[in-house]
Amino acid sequence: MTTETRAFNAASFFAYLKEGQLAGIRCRSCGKLSAEARPMCQACHSRDVEWFQFSGRGQLSAFTCISVVPNAMGEKGFGRNNPYCSGIVTLEEGPRISALVLGVDAANPQNIATGMALTLDVQDMESDRPTLAFVPA
Amino acid sequence: MAATISTAKRRQLGRPVSIVGAGLSRFGAFRDMTTRDLFVEAFQDLIDHMDQGIDVEDIECGYIGNYSSDLFEGQGHTAPILADWLGMTPTPITRIENACASSGSALREGIMAIASGMYDVVLVGGVEKMTDLPTEGVTDVLASAADGLYEVPAGLTFPGIYGALAKAHMDRYETSLAHLAKVGIKNHTNGALNPKAQFNTTLLDMMERRKARAEQQGQPVPDWRDEMDFLNDPRANPWIAWPLRLYDCAPITDGASCVLLVSSEIANNFTDKPVHVVGTGQASGRPLHDAEELTSLSAAREAAAQAYAMAGVTPRDIQVAEVHDCFTIAEIIATEDLGFFEPGEGPRAVDEGRTALTGDRPINTSGGLKAKGHPVGASGVAQVIETFHQLRGEAGPRQVPNTNLELGLTHNVGGTGGTCVVNILRRG
């Protein structure tokens, strides 16, 4: 938790990522946590929200290994012969988030296990929109 | 196990609404056709098949589903162009966008426009021209139906998110690649009976043709024994987004669909065989990472609950259904979300042939999005058209063998469950 007063929006979410931190929102009214930066609680509609720093620890709840890639991932060298893994990560504080999963063998998905422990490893730090990524803990 | 279908507030239409005509363009890849050409073809098909004719001047209003003519062909503000090309100006036409549920949503707007008492005769439809872009471009356009801030940057594509759903379903239940393959085989078997289908052929015939071609060209002939063998060959069926392979995915399609809705009071002026809209529901859902469950689409459960409540029927009463099989796993999850089978029982129902044309719960008799094709903005109304033909007993070789066919259902999903529209139709 923090007394930080950055605007509750995606620009701030990415600014935190650029600092290596996964920050989301805690509702001061109902306690709901969101790994997405929102100006209003989606559970109780309260505007009384605050920044919440997630530990960056979590586990892999579902995943896919993508071979037919969008242009943006193609530019990073991924493609039919070099698939990548994207997953749904359940943070240890409870909320889930979509993230790139690195450090796993995406060409052999049968070797990737749901439930595996992951830790935050932000990519593209030089960009204005760094990439939320995790690696095996 | 908890009941799949929750209760929903029972809403009623202000007055009854009926479908009295349907038109479909060919589905496929048509290089020289644009959005307007496709929709005109569907509209001409409608006019040609009205039982007692229609004067275009009598159509008072229109709603057309279209996901992204802007990104697919660089054309925005599509509705007035369609009005012009149909010779319908100054009739108001509005484009509705809800990703792959665009025309399902357009249909609901038309239903409500009549139910409100404002109009008596309304055209609803959908259209998508997708094949101008290369596959990577189409992948990008479809991915823009997901959350651009919190899903797309994770590398997730449209098949990717359904791949994650498939993996979650496999982890939780006994779902396998073979179950997914069987959905595709079944839908292609139906599509082979549908002359409008993009893939008007069984997978077995497709396999035999590829063998024959290899032989003709003096190349090594693959030794596939049957469809399953063919689908298990990574050269024939490569990974798209593991655990989904090429033949788990609906194709990229150009096509258009439309139906004529009227106030039920005047339905008999148009046909002796109207089909009544007795239930309609629509709901919104959150991205997969924020969903209550990773093996189900909450919007589908809610939309179904609304439609069942309005119609006063239960899943057991539904005799034929077109569900949104943009991927094979999506059909399995749909049959569970709609309450046809308990959660986790969808794969077994496929194994047992229950969802085949001759099964007790025929699903996607048209071939589904998988074989019929998936021009995204047109699919919701195309599902309604198949159900209209089934209920009128005019589906030809793919007619469900049940002489008491009375109730059908359509299930149209936008994105990965961001939107779901469910309609229940009754033979008049």
Please outline the helices and strands.
The complex is a heterodimer of chains A (137) and B (428).
Chain A: H1 10-18, E1 23-27, E2 33-34, E3 49-53, E4 57-66, H2 71-74, E5 84-91, E6 96-101, E7 117-120, E8 133-136
Parallel strand pairs in A: 6-8
Antiparallel strand pairs in A: 1-2, 1-3, 4-5, 4-7, 5-6, 7-8
Chain B: E1 17-24, H1 35-48, E2 61-65, H2 69-73, H3 78-85, E3 93-96, H4 102-115, E4 121-128, H5 135-143, H6 158-172, H7 177-191, H8 203-216, H9 227-231, E5 239-242, E6 244-245, E7 255-263, E8 275-284, H10 298-311, E9 320-322, H11 328-337, H12 346-351, H13 368-372, H14 379-391, E10 407-414, E11 419-427
Parallel strand pairs in B: 2-3, 2-4, 9-10
Antiparallel strand pairs in B: 1-7, 1-8, 4-7, 5-6, 8-11, 10-11
Description of the structure:
Chain A is mainly beta. Helices cover 9% and strands 32% of the residues of chain A. Chain B has 428 residues and is α/β, with parallel strands linked by helices. In chain B, 34% of the residues lie in helices and 16% in strands. Chain B contains 14 helices and eleven strands. Chain B has helices spanning 35-48, 69-73, 78-85, 102-115, 135-143, 158-172, 177-191, 203-216, 227-231, 298-311, 328-337, 346-351, 368-372, 379-391; strands at residues 17-24, 61-65, 93-96, 121-128, 239-242, 244-245, 255-263, 275-284, 320-322, 407-414, 419-427. In chain B, the strands form two sheets. A nine-stranded mixed sheet of chain B has the order 3-2-4-7-1-8-11-10-9, with helices on both faces. In chain B, strands 5-6 form a two-stranded antiparallel ribbon. In chain B, helix 1 packs across helix 3 (78-85) and helix 7 packs across helix 11 (328-337). Chain B starts with 16 loop residues before the first strand and ends with a strand. Chains A and B meet through strand 4, helix 2, strand 5 and strand 6 of A and helix 5, helix 6 and strand 5 of B. Strand 4 (57-66) of chain A pairs antiparallel with strand 5 of chain B.
